[in-house]
Amino acid sequence: MLSGTISHWRKQLQNGSISPTELVEEIARSIETRNPATNAYLSWNKEAALAEAAKADLSLPLGGIPVAIKDNICLAGEPTRCASRMLENFVSPYNATAVEKLRAAGAIPFGRTNMDEFAMGSYGENSAFGATDNPAAPGHVPGGSSSGSAAAVAGGMAIAALGSDTGGSIRQPASHCGVVGLKPTYGRVSRYGLVAFASSLDQIGPITQNVEDAATVLNAICGHDAKDSTSSAISTENFAAELGQDIKGLRIGLPKEYLSSGNDAAVSAALEQSIRTLTDLGAEITEISLPHAEAVVAAYYIIACAEASSNLSRFDGIRYGFRADNTAGLDDLYSRTRETGFGPEVKRRIILGTYVLSSGFYDAYYAKAQKVRSLVAGDFTAAFGQADLILGPVAPTPAPRLKDTSLSPLQTYLSDIYTIPANLAGLPGISIPCPQPGSLPTGIQLLAPHFAETRLLRAAYALEQALAR
Ligand code: GLN
To answer: Which residues line ligand 1 (CB under 6 A)?
Structure first.
């Protein structure tokens, strides 16, 4: 099994202890050995990675570092399936901007990681190509939807990976697998080439072994992109600049709504341990309130499904992707293609989304959900008047068992309660491991105001280092 962070392998590459080619070979061996039991990757192209490795420029910030890419982020010449039958045979003709930027920083995109179909899910079990097992807790889900990216990093099958986060899909699987997941501010990383699920919420970000690596990958992938009209023109900084600086006097807000008795004991213990640790580091913990916390799940599932129903209308059997055979006319072609190509969760969301947008119901559901979204954003604006960062759980419980049929879709949706707010408000958030004795991997989440990733990473780094002591 491969271990070591980006900075570890950078040093090894630079001092000649290993060549980029050997590093690719090493990762490929690790994938070949461990993927049959985990299903973290849907495919990997060793030859293409070796060709890149042969010309790797080690002077670049990610020179020679292979990075795994979630299956909904376009990788030129490779399948981009979104773990769906609908796109099973689709080969992307171009690279997502985040992938282009990784390559410009010297990284080698390597492998397509498994996920919930079209990024809809929390456990990785909605993949059309089988569930992913959690290497840090075998027999349990790795979280989702970036299930394969988190499992690959946790299981020594990737040094780092890209995921996407619409309602928690980077932070929650990172937490369930005991690794770090960073969702940047909406607009910080271009969405060009990310297959759209809910465009106003989707954001690409890194899943890594530690906070420093998250900063390194974010440095590489961020920045304005003319190809994404929602990408921000705000200037980028060196997000690693404040790593190692102290956090004395930093005000950490603790939402009273997050101290729910419904949280698992390990989750509450992780929160308490983080509060103690941050206090020891000189931060000030202040209680804050997010009054609309209870409404976020309902608002999110209305907005996300509405946008999904629109975005996924392009998968019609005509333009690209799967097409049903022997159909009788156009309507039959559309309906049989979509019936066969999409899995049950995707269909559920398309139906829900179409309903909440339909005439007569739009005002009652979609318009109201948008109002709630504004109120949630307002809660954060008020909270960040009193606090520099916000601390909370990532999920109410550690990873459930694989194939736990007692969990209804609604219960699954409710488990996103702590990650969704950052997406509704467009805020950056990070999940870092906070292991509790005798428990499955448990993480802790920090949220920051828009574009305050440098502060977020400084605090996350300080907490990570102190928790490891
Ligand atoms: N679990 C959430 C959902 O199913 C979040 C998914 C995501 O962030 N892509 O919608």
So the answer is: 119-122, 145, 165-169, 197, 304, 416
